[in-house]
Description:
The protein is mostly helical.
Amino acid sequence: MHPHxxxxxxxxxxxxxxxxxxxxxxxxxxxxxxxxxxxxTAVNKCLRAQRLExxxxxxxAAKAKREEIRQKWAEIDANS
Length: 80
């Protein structure tokens, strides 16, 4: 299962998502016979890469914020 495809966070995967949409537009039989599997796999790989980049950025931001809080507490402890 994947999130909503066409959002602002998924702009880098727009091309592969369009290919998947075009494949799905061909009809139920096309999808049920597995003809869209390669496009679906490409979308999954692209979304996974985007998620990994996003989590790495979030992790770095959290580390920086934790360090800032740690420094503020150290300053408070030193001044009290």
